Structure formats: structure tokens, C-alpha cells
Amino acid sequence: MKRRVGLIGVGSVGASVAVSTLHSGAADELLLSDLNADRAEGEAMDLAHGAAFYPAATVRTASIEEMNDADAVVVTAGRNGKAGESRLDLLRDNAKVIRSIGERLKTCRGVIVVVSNPVDVLTQVMTAAARLPPGRVLGTGTMLDSARFRHAISQALGVESRSIHAQIVGEHGDSQAPLWSGARVGGVSLRSWPRWDRAQEPRIAEQVRTAAYEIIRRKGATNHAIGLVTAELLRCMLRGERRVLTVSRVQDGTAGLRDVALSLPTVVSSQGALQVVEPEMSGEERERLLHSAEVLRQAYAQVSAA
């Protein structure tokens, strides 16, 4: 059976998602849609011309309504953040865009993946607008933050990042919570690793938290890493690998959290983000997670009342 992926929004992030998805082999058919129809058509043509250099797949434009029959629909529509602007500053503008798209995806048979920022609040907006079960609408959440976290630790240790298991939970944004107590290097607790200095943890956490701002200040947008993250999420999901990933979804009780979209370790399959796992946390880390949840609840309340 062909794996069909829809992509709504082909700006800088959407284009990176498209290229990474094709190279990953996650999709047999990639459908593109954008408010600027010419841009979507041009991207489809450009990507199709490179078909000799990625696993067999077709690329074409399609309406949002046609994407209701896709196995997964990725949403990157909306504007990007500006220098000095937080992800939550984007909220009012992008919530309107996501709500209108969600209302056109009410018969979606697959899984909706939200990439647009602020991703946690917009995942909740999409869930409400599309009227789908929470597990069928997920956001890329802190997958990218967790990758940045592992990279920063790997740089400090001189160990390949794929040997490091460390997670950021909560908001994909300023209130994110790094889980130092559960971090592992090759199965060994990070804090038991030879010569690990806990004094550097605040610096690394701040480096991860501000990474996007630093990239935006230099090049205007972040796009390549999130493209790779989204492609990996699609590959794992559509292959039914049941990987545990820090994706965002509306929570229904895990860690005492309900009716707020944020990231926790979650088993992801072709049916979506269905099994959420409560991670090992210290008391301080739990407090940070609860604070993150409250920040996101307040942000969602602003747009749900609008």
C-alpha cells in the first residue's frame, strides 16, 4: 500500500520537510499545498526533477481536502518567528491559520502532524478544530530540543550523540524542562559519568533553550533540523516502528496532566501518539514540567477565547 503524505505550507520549513521526507523514503507520494499556489507548483516541479536521487516517490500539488485521504498530513503553514520574538508571540497570527486548516481536515483518516509554532498550543488548536481524538493530532514538540540537548551533552563529553539518551519535556519553548536526572550515556547515568561536572548543566540548558533564537538572529529562520526531525517522525510513524519520541499531544492524565498539549515520551505508531509514558523526574524537574503546562494552558486560553 502506498504511503501518502500531505504537506500544507511550503515555505522554508515546509521545503526542508519535503526534501528530508523524500530522502528518508517515508513517503511514496508527497502532496503539496500552499496559500501561494504557484509556489507549491514550483516546489513540486523542483522536487520531482530530483527523483533520480531519492527513493521512488511521486510529488504533486493537491488541495487540503484531498489530503483527508493521506496517511499523514504535515502542517507547517503560518509565519516564522522574528529576531527577538518568542514562539508564543507568534500565537495569535498562527492560531487563525491552523484553525482554518483544521476545519478542512475533519474527515482526515490519517495522523495530523503540526510543525508550525508555537507548536504545543497550535497542536491543541488543531485537535479542537479538526475534532479528532488527541492521539491522532500530534506536534513535533520537543523532538528537536531533545536532539539539541543530546548534541550539547555529546560536545561536552566527546561521545557520539546517538549513544546519549536525554530528553526535554514540556513546552517547545522557553519553559521547557530538561530531564537531567534521567539522562543516560551508553546505559550509564550521565551524572555518574567520569568527570561529568554538574556545574555546567545550567549553561547547557540555556544553550538548548536559546538555540532557535541564535539561529534566527544569524540566518532569519530555523528550517533544516526541523525538516530532518519531521521526516524521522514520519518514517517511524508510517513504518509502525512504535518508537518512543518526545512529541506533543493533548494530554489525558499522564503525570497528572490533562487538557494541555505538551511533550512527554510517547509511543508513536501509524495510529498516532497513543501511549504516553511518565518519565523519571526529580522533584525540581516535575515542578518545571508543571510550570510549563501552566504557561501553555494560559496561552491556549488566550486564543480559545478569541
Explained architecture:
It is a single chain. By secondary structure, the chain is an alpha/beta fold. It has 2 domains: 4-139, Rossmann fold; 143-304, Lactate dehydrogenase/glycoside hydrolase, family 4, C-terminal (L-2-Hydroxyisocaproate Dehydrogenase, Chain A, domain 2, Alpha-Beta Complex), CATH 3.90.110.10. Helix content is 39%, strand content 20%. It contains 9 helices and 14 strands. It has helices at 12-24, 37-48, 91-102, 119-130, 143-157, 201-209, 211-219, 224-238, 283-304, and strands at 4-8, 29-33, 58-61, 72-75, 111-114, 137-139, 164-165, 168-169, 177-178, 184-185, 188-189, 243-252, 258-269, 272-276. Strands 3-2-1-4-5-6 form a 6-stranded parallel β-sheet. β1, α1 (12-24) and β2 (29-33) form a beta-alpha-beta unit. α3 runs parallel beside α4 and α5 (143-157) packs antiparallel against α6. It is globular, with a radius of gyration of 19 Å. The relative contact order is 0.15. The mean pLDDT is 95.
CATH evolutionary superfamily of the largest domain: Lactate dehydrogenase/glycoside hydrolase, family 4, C-terminal
Q: Could you tell me the radius of gyration in angstroms? A: 19 Å
Query: Which structural class do you get from the secondary structure elements?
Result: alpha/beta
| Mass-distribution shape | globular
Task: Indicate the multimeric state.
Answer: single chain
What's the number of domains? 2
- Ends: how far apart? 42 Å
Tell me the CATH architecture of the largest domain. Answer: Alpha-Beta Complex
Order of helices and strands: EHEHEEHEHEHEEEEEHHHEEEH
Major β-sheet profile: 6 strands, parallel
Record the strand order, biggest sheet.
3-2-1-4-5-6
Task: Summarize model confidence as the mean pLDDT.
Answer: 95
Count of helices?
A: 9
Strand content: 15-25%
Number of strands: 14
| CATH class placement of the largest domain | Alpha Beta
